[in-house]
What we know:
Layout: E1 5-7, H1 8-11, H2 14-17, E2 20-25, E3 31-35, E4 46-52, E5 58-72, E6 75-78, E7 81-84, E8 88-92, E9 97-101, E10 107-112, E11 115-123, E12 129-138, E13 143-155, E14 171-173, E15 176-179, E16 188-192, E17 197-209, H3 211-215, E18 221-234, E19 239-245, H4 254-263, H5 271-280, E20 283-286, E21 289-292, E22 295-296, H6 303-314, H7 320-333, H8 355-368, H9 374-391, E23 398-399, E24 405-406, E25 420-421, E26 424-425, E27 432-433, H10 434-448, H11 457-478, E28 479-480, E29 485-486, E30 489-490, E31 496-497, H12 503-509, H13 517-530, E32 532-533, E33 536-538, H14 555-562, E34 567-568, H15 572-583, H16 588-596, E35 605-606, E36 613-614, E37 622-623, E38 627-628, H17 629-643
Parallel strand pairs: 2-35
Antiparallel strand pairs: 1-9, 2-3, 3-4, 4-5, 5-6, 5-13, 7-8, 9-10, 10-11, 11-12, 12-19, 13-18, 14-15, 15-16, 16-19, 17-18, 20-21, 22-38, 23-24, 25-26, 27-30, 28-29, 30-31, 32-33, 33-34, 36-37
Helix pairs in contact: 5-17, 6-7, 6-8, 6-17, 7-8, 8-9, 8-10, 9-10, 10-11, 10-12, 12-15, 13-15, 15-17, 16-17
Amino acid sequence: MAYINFDKSMLVNLEYSLGKEILRTSRTGSYSSTTIVGCNTRKYHGLLVCPIDRFGGERYVLLSSFDVSVVEGGKVFNLGIHKFDGDHFSPKGHKYLKDFTTELIPSLSYEVGTVKLRQERLLSDNSDQLMIRYTIEEAQEPVTLQFRPLLAFRKIHELTMSNLSANTRVNYIKNGIKMRLYEGFPYLFMQFSREPEFVKVPDWIYGVEYLEEQRRGYDYKEDLFIPGYFELRLKAGENIVFSASTEETNPSGLKARFSNVLKTKVPRDSFRNCLLNAAQQFIIKRNTDTNIIAGYHWFGSWGRDTFISLPGLTLSRGDLKTCREVLDTQKGKMKDGLFPNMGEAGDYAFNSVDAPLWFIWDVQQYINAGGNDGWNRYGNAVLQIIKTYIRGTLFNIGMHENGLIYAGAEGKALTWMDAIISTGPVTPRIGYNVEINALWYNALCFAKEHLRNITDKDLNQLIRNLPEKVKGSFLNYFWDEEKEYLADYVEANGTRNMYVRPNMLIAASLPYTMLDRTMIKSVLDVAESELLTCRGLRTLSPKNLHYEGLYRGTQEQRDRAYHQGTVWPWLIGPYAEAYLRLYGEKGVKKISNLIKEFENVMDEHGVSTISEVYDGDPPQLPGGAISQAWSVGEILRIIDLNDQITVKKKFKG
């Protein structure tokens, strides 16, 4: 039995199977994604979705679906499935499914009468190319197969409708056709490993609906273009490979290429292998840059998410090279000591107070993992960040006389709790934030390690003395002797916000911490009592009047809950690291058991990966993006940390 497998009883139950999604990516930034039965439920789904450099690198759905039909006994059995108005599904190809597995690549087995057909999909690693292999496993006589491409040619965030502007011209090439519906797009080359017959029957399929978009309160209907269909005959034991690509391929080499790419795949035959595969899917190498996609399907490359997820996605796999490439790419985006939180070149938003401090944490992680060139390579960037925070910068970000970092402006959300609704930020947190100042102290202590390399005498002296000042102010401002935990943030006038949130765990987990062991234990006890779940940590205690236990509804409803109780898996990272700091080897078993809980999600939502968020209320159902970089990265980092026998060597006083 495969590690992840869905049988017929699961597949034919659409209420169950439409909630299970598959994602595969290439290092070029392309992806292929749909549900396990092949019915697209999101506008973000598509069999070939590619970034297009001419359009600023934005991703576009080129090939939405590719329906295969079996012709037997004069009847056509369409194995595709699409949703239309009123919960009407047509065709209903899922009823012919026998099983689905994803141990190596997504593989579906169909049974139509006496015909058994297997379909296997993979995405090339280093090109924008989807390949699908169809194998006739059993048949009493040669089988005719028909293939219908459903084309979209639109941005992932948008929908398309039938129109007279679409270029429906078919250009014939070797063993297939090429098309581009609109000017400026690359051609989509659709080819087979054997010459097919193409029957030109241009038509629009109207009113395709995307169930998840409807549930999320967005537009959810679109029209897709079908240029016609390909037809081939295969005998039992024969197979054919289909390629959809932005470049023309040599059809005679398709079978060999499919087999060669298949050999490079790591089997998803264990929990750890699933996570290692998922980790690779966030890393994009396009042109000269190496970036991390924050999550699939709608996220781009975001500074904060990149830095928090980077050590787990790379260093936990021993991949210093990719870690270095990402840091180099991000360093090239730095402006006046800040990193862009989101956006594209020329339109970056530098509205993240913590991203630069997480960058410094990354440099620490890189050096600890064996990157001996870390300070020489990134030391100047580290010092530039520190100088920026000392002198002050955008959004009132800067150091006050007490040594603490203040941040905030009306209408802005600068920390990772950055949801904004129609009335403004849900959690503005204007003032001194607990995790920001913990990261600030850690950054200063790290720089102090390298005083001998800091030639600026004034800066050298400041960094020599500043950590102690910061520590004293931090404990005075944030530690509550009566409640025995840290304030989440402190206003400029000294008023403490004592909401129980997970941000205080970051202060207990960093390489340099201002907390003693008694404080760390108390913070952990509060977090375990009010925040810890089997899927991560809640963003707010259920005891709080503002707690939202379900991540559901419209975008505004979801955003209200986003940081007001919703569970985030990545927060396991600081919790587990603080726990291991306190208990050492005695804490390994508990953290192992906590991590093992995530094995239960390998066959739900995003199959073989970890979702962005989960409900705060039991049973902690998944929500948000189906695969999130810092969810996967932090779980991998903690697995790696937990595997260390001498855990205490990771920490400094």
